[in-house]
Amino acid sequence: MENTWSKVDDYIQRKTQSRDEDLQHVLDHNREQGLPAIDVSPNEAKFLYTLAKMKDAKRILEIGTLGGFSTIWLAKAVQPEGKVITLEINPHHAEVAKANLQNTSLDHLVEIKLGSAHASLEELIVSKEEPFDFVFIDADKESCVPYFQAVLKLSKRGTVIVTDNVIRNGELINKESKDTGVAGVRALFDHLATLDHVSSTSLQTVGSKGYDGFSISIVE
Ligand code: SAM
């Protein structure tokens, strides 16, 4: 079945992404540089781009840059003069992302903040950073709740918050799981259930990245 999911993903990408949108060279570069293959898939990246465009987002925050594949798509969405701030703890990942961005015409739209996302988020809050329109949370899943809480302080009515990898091959509903990532996403769902000013849903996905999904929230 996974083979079919990948073939369908390839088909969708061929039919819906132009040559200009083909960022396979970015993914190839990330692998050459030894980065793990945990970037979003091309169709997921375009899904994020589409959501950001639907929101007419001008200010985007991303937690978890890796080699900047999703970052480039988010930067495309804020053109010509928006801003993407992306947080990354690993210096090598940040360097690779910087090089990938420098190969695009979008570099000036992106700020990569190197360091623990916890510290960077705190800095953004303390410095009273203008609220973001769209946030993509895609780092260590153990920290989903603290990231979500911090992101709410950087949000306004209408801010859209997407968290990746919340289904985890269906393990989301396994309360016996010893996986700390599963515990992290379960804690996120528990937290979302307590928030009456945030409306959330989640979509299960299959594709070249297997069986997973996004949670999508809007601040009301
Ligand atoms: N969004 C990227 C994409 O789709 O191209 C993929 C991000 S990857 C799934 C997660 C990234 O989060 C890794 O590069 C990892 O180094 C980073 N990360 C993990 N823990 C972090 C932390 N505490 N603070 C900031 N970044 C962190």
TrEMBL record:
It holds the Pfam family Methyltransf_3. The keyword Methyltransferase applies. GO terms for molecular function: catechol O-methyltransferase activity. Keywords: Methyltransferase, S-adenosyl-L-methionine, Transferase. InterPro entries: Cation-dep_OMT, SAM-dependent_MTases_sf, SAM_O-MeTrfase. GO terms for biological process: methylation. Gene3D superfamilies: Vaccinia Virus protein VP39. The keyword Transferase applies. Its EC number is 2.1.1.6. PANTHER family: CAFFEOYL-COA O-METHYLTRANSFERASE 3-RELATED (PTHR10509:SF14), O-METHYLTRANSFERASE-RELATED (PTHR10509). This is Catechol O-methyltransferase. It comes from Sutcliffiella rhizosphaerae.
